């Protein structure tokens, strides 16, 4: 049991170190995937489009760097900026969303990439604290398992 806990502890430790060392690559990868999701956005119920809509509605953002990122997409040429970018759903018409100058007043202008990464970085201290707490419990479990094993081994010889 102590060996299993030690193995899990080492795996979590390695994952944390790798995540910290490669955090810039993770950001770059996330940005390219967000750009790809915008490029392939079609407004239907597929997972990528739903994810983009959810991010934009939840974080009150639009596009990757800003709302003008939508102008480079195929969806914009057909339907304009998506409804999920609107500040108020009642005040956003299809005509406004097709015109970038009018849309600037009706949609969120901040990009989602900065908001997502800053939200993740602000929550990192909470994640690190919880991970540290779990690691402490794992170390206590390892120590107690070793003590129990030693106690059982010592008592076997006394039973004779």
TrEMBL record:
Q: Indicate where this protein is primarily found.
A: membrane
Q: What does this protein do?
A: May be involved in cell proliferation and cell motility.
| Stored InterPro entries | Tetraspanin/Peripherin (IPR018499), Tetraspanin_EC2_sf (IPR008952), TSN6/7_LEL (IPR048232)
Q: Where is the signal peptide?
A: 1-19
Does this UniProt record's set of keywords contain Glycoprotein? yes
Localisation per UniProt entry: Membrane
Per its UniProt entry, which superkingdom is the organism in? Eukaryota
- CC per GO annotation: plasma membrane
Q: What is this protein called?
A: Tetraspanin-7
Q: Which PANTHER family does this entry report, sorted A to Z?
A: TETRASPANIN (PTHR19282), TETRASPANIN-6 (PTHR19282:SF169)
The gene is Tspan6
Membrane-topology annotation of the record: Multi-pass membrane protein
UniProt keywords (A-Z) are: Glycoprotein, Membrane, Signal, Transmembrane, Transmembrane helix
Q: What stretches pass through the bilayer?
A: 126-152
**Presence of keyword Transmembrane:** yes
